[in-house]
Amino acid sequence: MVLVLNGVIQDERPINTHALFLEHPVYRETATQLLSIPTKTVGAPGLLYVCQREMAAVAPHDRNVNIIGSDDATTCIIVVVRHSGSGAIALAHLDGNGTDEAVSAMVARVQELAFGYPEGRIELQLIGGFSDPQGYAEDLFSNIMQSFHKHPLEIDLTQSCVGELNTMVRDDINWPIIYGVGVNIKTGEIFPANFPDKGPDLPLRMARHFTGSHQVLDIYDAAVGMLRIGPFNYDPLRGVDLWLAQSDEFILKHLSTSPEVEPPHFAMQVRATLRYIQDNQFPAVTVFRNNNPHYFRRDETTGCWTPVRY
Predict the structure, then answer these.
(1) Is residue 297 helix, strand or coil?
(2) Partners of 182 in the beta sheet?
(3) What is the pLDDT of residues 122-177, one digit of tens each?
(4) Structural domains of the chain in order of their starting residue, each with its CATH number
(5) In what order do the strands lie in the sheet with 40-41?
(6) Of 142, 145, 110, 120, residue with least CA distance to 220
(7) What is the chain's Cα-based Rg?
(8) Which residues contact 13 (CB under 8 A, 6 or more apart)?
(9) Whole-prediction pTM value?
(10) Nearest to 113, CA basis, from 87, 152, 91, 93
């Protein structure tokens, strides 16, 4: 009983997005405000990009990060947890896998980064997850609400731009309005965004979606200011050659939860990931030698992530 909606502690979590918006119209207002902000294209310098099935947490005084964000969310939901006193932020791109663990980890990371700062509340913002025909995003919203509702801390939902509020109709097809968001870590400002550069090791990071890995990976070590990928393993994927021989339309139809509304680069990104899996069937052996993570440090000249060589 610790989910707070519009300032009121709730006995029950909202059963669906429609019930939430009906009972608490304030979320329509905050979503409208977010949707009115022009979408920004964010470059690589100072960016901490979070892929699907990943999370990261950062404090406002971090010298290596200016913007934390994620995009390409159709049936996924981008979750932002912020401590109002310290400004510490955690962001995750959730698809229904590992939700309970991710929610606990996000709140814990924010509390760690907020240690010693003035008192504040834990604020929650949800963005993405349009009204898709199969109801994937609605199920995910329910899943996320349940995870936060059973958390022992009071968590204040301040933004819920999901479902019908993040949906427009074009040619009789429901489309997401916002595919991604960025958060200014100094101010906490959240804004619609897209990210042409999604950071290093992208095919490796995306390989986890196709090979049965259900964990939400924490990709940032705030103590040392480094992006950290792995170590992890995945099962070999059968029939990669067959997948790579198919058309973009076939890949869209069979490897997307929302094939009609994916961004244009979806098939290209999937192909790059499948080729990576083909070349690295056992990453614990060929990629993460001696079980070491891949670390990346911010280059002070370019502002971009560069590999740390040992």
Answers:
(1) strand
(2) 69, 191
(3) 999 999 999 999 999 999 999 999 999 999 999 999 999 999 999 999 999 999 99
(4) 3-308 (3.30.1330.200)
(5) 40-41, 190-194, 181-184, 67-70, 47-49
(6) 110
(7) 19
(8) 3, 142, 145, 146, 148, 149
(9) 0.95
(10) 87
